[in-house]
Amino acid sequence: MVDPARALLVFAALVVATAVLVWPRRGVFALVQRTRRATERVRVEDAVKYLFHAGDDGAAVRPEALAGALSVRETVARTLLTRLVERGLARTDGVGFRLTEGGRRDALRLVRTHRLVEQWLADRTGVEPAEWHAVAEDAEHDLTAEQVEALAAQLGQPRFDPHGDPIPTATGELPVDDRVLLGRLAPGEAGTIAHLEDEPAESYIALRRAGLTLGRALVVHARDARGVQLELDGNRVTLPHLLEAGVSVLRAPHTSTERPATLADIAPGESARVIGIDRACRGAQRRRLLDLGVVPGTRIAAVLRSAGGDPIAYDIRGALIGLRAQQAAWVRIDAASIAPHEADRVA
Amino acid sequence: MSPTTFRGQALARDADLVQLATRSERFDHLVALAGNPNTGKSTVFNALTGLRQHTGNWPGKTVTRAEGYFVAGGTRFKLVDLPGTYSLQAASDDEQVARDMLLFGRPDVTVLVLDATRLERNLNLALQVLAITPRVVVCLNLMDEARRRGIGVDPLALSRELGVPVIPASARSGEGIEALREAVRAMAAGETPTTPYRVARFDADTESTIATVETAVLDAYPDLPNSRWVALRLLNADERVEAAVQNGELAALVAERPPAARPTPVASAAIHDASPVAVQSGNDVLAVASAVRWRLAADFQDRITEGIYRAAEAIATASRLGGVQRLRFDFDRTLDRWLTSPLTGFPIMVLLLGIVFWLTIAGANVPSAMLGTLLVDHGHAWLSSLFTAAGAPDWLRGFVVDGVYLATAWVIAVMLPPMAIFFPLFTLLEDFGYLPRVAFNLDALFRRVGAHGKQALTMCMGFGCNAAGVVATRVIDSPRERLVAIITNNFSLCNGRWPTQILLATVFVGALAPPALAGLVSASAVVSVTLIGVAAMFFASWLLTRTVLRGEATSFSLELPPYRPPRLWQTLYTSLIDRTLIVLWRAIAFAAPAGAVIWLVGNVSVGGATLADLLVRWLEPAGLLLGLNGVILLAYVIAIPANEIVIPTVLMLTVLTGGVPEAGAGAGVLFELDAADVGVLLREHGWTTLTAVCTMLFSLLHNPCSTTIYTIYRETGSARWTALATLMPLGMGAVVCFLVAQVWRLVTGA
Prior knowledge:
The structure holds 2 protein chains of 2 kinds.
Chain A: H1 4-22, H2 28-37, H3 40-54, H4 63-70, H5 74-86, E1 90-92, E2 97-99, H6 101-124, H7 129-139, H8 145-154, E3 180-181, E4 190-196, H9 201-209, E5 217-223, E6 228-232, E7 235-239, H10 241-244, E8 247-251, E9 270-277, H11 283-292, E10 299-305, E11 312-316, E12 319-323, H12 325-328, E13 331-333, E14 339-340, E15 345-346
Antiparallel strand pairs in A: 1-2, 3-8, 4-5, 4-8, 5-6, 6-7, 9-10, 9-13, 9-14, 10-11, 11-12
Helix pairs in contact in A: 3-5, 3-6, 4-5, 6-7
Chain B: H1 3-17, E1 29-35, H2 41-49, E2 53-57, E3 64-72, E4 75-81, H3 93-104, E5 109-115, H4 119-132, E6 136-141, H5 143-148, H6 155-162, E7 166-168, H7 177-188, H8 204-220, H9 227-235, H10 239-246, H11 249-254, H12 269-272, H13 282-294, H14 300-319, E8 325-326, H15 331-340, H16 342-389, H17 394-432, H18 435-447, H19 455-464, H20 466-472, H21 479-488, H22 498-509, H23 515-546, E9 558-559, H24 568-603, E10 605-606, E11 609-610, H25 611-625, H26 630-638, H27 646-657, H28 675-684, H29 689-700, H30 706-716, H31 719-748
Parallel strand pairs in B: 1-4, 1-5, 5-6, 6-7
Antiparallel strand pairs in B: 2-3, 3-4, 10-11
Helix pairs in contact in B: 4-14, 6-14, 8-9, 8-13, 15-16, 16-17, 17-24, 19-20, 20-30, 21-23, 21-31, 22-23, 22-28, 22-29, 25-26, 26-27, 29-31, 30-31
């Protein structure tokens, strides 16, 4: 029979070896996959996209900037740009590079794929918001034109991605709206968040952690060296200028932005009238709530608390539906309409 | 129209339905049955069709499909049960199937089942159905419950509001079913004019948006009756409807003319230009819809649903009898307060489930013994003598009687009684409405590992039979949570494994304690293994949601239906028949081949040694590493079809390969002994306490039985998840047994 001590040691060694191989992002398999992906085509496409985004205001892009963005050496970036010029996707004035019309079309196609994938992730999967951009970055190189069109059809031809970015059409049109950078709002002005910049990932995560999501209303209070002071849902938030640059808003009339009351605020025995569902609630979850009758004007009563504390059962249009606290927090109610509810009353 | 034209149409439509249908018999009219979940729709279905029904799946989807037939007034109707849905937005497979059937299946009549106690919510679906087809008969079900709770609904007023016939019913007691049949017959025969409610008034903006697209639709298809609904779907970029517009399917639905020829591609200028254009083809309609959609407000869909609910509210109010009513005593709420309070909720739950388990174990003993004597002792002997008398060769008798028949009989004897008790009891609790409260109470715990509260229920079902537990996960409608429940269901110790656990615990673990405590100790050993299984389930759920299932979509809602007095005898009877049939089918389908393999392994010789000898010897090193031995591993491999025959197989193989052929009933023949003899036999062949403990753990943590694997594949439709569900428990079992064995040996110096 095998010596137990030796068997255990071998086992431990196997566990360590497996961990080294399959560890997410830093394991051997992940690294191999990353290197294999960094093919010529992928690098070219990334370069085209960078030129598109960076060259928005017409300025030419220098190799150093591209090198920094793609995390490659400057010589590699220079070679890449030369290849773009050879293929007719970019032109140069000797120092900086700009996209040609053909390059712009390619870029729009890539951007369309990227944003469609993000919308699919947001609408049809449970992938975390912080990961949408990274996953889409990888996937955008792998989809064929037919697959992209099928994806767009399946999603119902969305116009904006979950960050608020416009999705170019198949023919390269970009939907526009009247959004402005948050920096353009003067103290005292209000707006609703229309776009949150998803790169770099850390900034996006920081913005979301500060409570900013699409559709939220904010009011600018003051601006100083530290950053901008906002009122968001009744909370005072200070955003450093660096983060502020990643937020675009639609101007809106100044309405009360105190923290909206939600269904999570009423206790069993109380009822309230629904104003709407937070836009952070999306996809299948949102559709389910709508189908159950959680629409503006509905009166919902909290009836039972579970023995485990959560969920709470609500009377929604005559049916008793259990919702977790997290979901109840997405349902906005009119604070003034909270009233005691008599459970045995049939209205 | 003459009957032959009807039939001709029916046959032609049947050909269309081949895409949607799996089987068809001759019928005159097609009837679709739609409604919310929990409205008693299946009761209506059963009441209308009796036993003339069969279930399957919608092609290409893992959604159940039930079809049945009934006759009314000399005409034959085929009834198709659509999945219960809250809406027809086509967001989930269920909704897509329902919508496709209503739109493209062109049923002659649609029966819409509404819950009289929750009219508003039900009207959401009703208004959407009425927008698609005018030939609707409403079955206002659960009238008895409405009366009990003091809710009054006036069917005539509702009929006036909706513009279609409304038949009040209580399907449970059969009330209204005859009237429903007659109404369906009349509608199919064209005797009932309808003016279906079509106007859900939205705000001015939304109305003008819809009008633009609707005009384009009507320009292209002047006779389309549901143009407004089609316009709404196009504004939602509904893939299926768009395809139907483009390839002429929609046109063919309007009149019986062939699809239009391929239209010319649309110019890109049309995207910006939504002013009235001569709309000649489907593509033009799509272009108009595209252009209008460009300018839609972001919350368009919300506004549509809002508008529908506003209309529903108005209709419900107009149909209600009397005003605000007060109930003197609300049984439901009071009971709920007891069942969900932290103080009383959990104890009641533990008590009820404990009673169910105890009744199963205690109640199954005698029937199991009786069946065993009948099928195994007497049946086997009788069949054996039959074969001998007929002069059949030894190997044939051995193969058929000792192999195939014996294994099948064994499985039936062990499986049938516990399942026949456990499932009816469980179904009673479910019918009563208690089970969702259990899920409600335990949800907080399951949420922490990324699962759904209803997994508690499927886990309990798994204690009866894992395959049944997997099927039960249909109640979890969120994709990710459902997969978690399916993959981890195997950690519930199913009925088939209890005998193994109890036997080994009694012989090896109980024997370690003083005789007075032996029973208690062995019982606690079994309970501990069960609890380890529960812990493994939580751990596996946590692991899956963090890794493999991370990105799957998730949505939570838990409906608490009202309490309904269970129909005791009806439930017991149907559940009994169901369970009996399933066990018999399973025994024949899976256990019979296993029996054949077992007998062959014991009787086929290669180079002087039986297959059993060779395989056992080959598996011995791996077995020892895991704290088991070659016999146990081989037994688990060939008994994969059924856990019940593991111990008899182990005994047979032990005797066969251990060179004690006079014990037992012969080579390749399963047998059993009472506990004391088992202990002696196994210990003689090298079993120690460690072997028993590892076998108990492996029995808990090995791959699911073949029925379960097959069921998982049918439910998920994916080879990938089936493979994961099979290999993950096996991997966990191997690792756990290995660690226990090595540490034990290290510590005890064995």
